[in-house]
Design a protein that fits this description.
Structural class: alpha+beta
Distance between the termini: 12 Å
Helix content: 25-40%
Low-confidence stretches: none
Strand content: 15-25%
Length: 69
């Protein structure tokens, strides 16, 4: 599945939560990570670049993958 811009949808999985959060792109995911999950800007950008981040950069483990991976 792709967004209107042709980019793949992203699934965010948070340690301890069995339900992924789905985003239509990195910009939307970044807003969520900063406002709702309250990650630091460094941790959020690391997650977007590497696809995962955890302690000590973040209080829990996070993974971000294209839908279906």
């Amino acid at each position: 599945m792709t967004s209107e811009q042709g980019l793949p949808w992203l699934d965010l999985r948070v340690e301890g939560d069995p339900h992924p959060r789905r985003f239509d792109g990195q910009a939307t995911a970044l807003q969520y990570l900063l406002r709702v999950e309250r990650l630091s800007a460094d941790a959020a950008h690391e997650l977007l670049e590497r696809g995962e981040v955890g302690p000590p950069a973040a209080r829990r483990g996070y993974t971000l993958r294209p839908l279906g991976q």
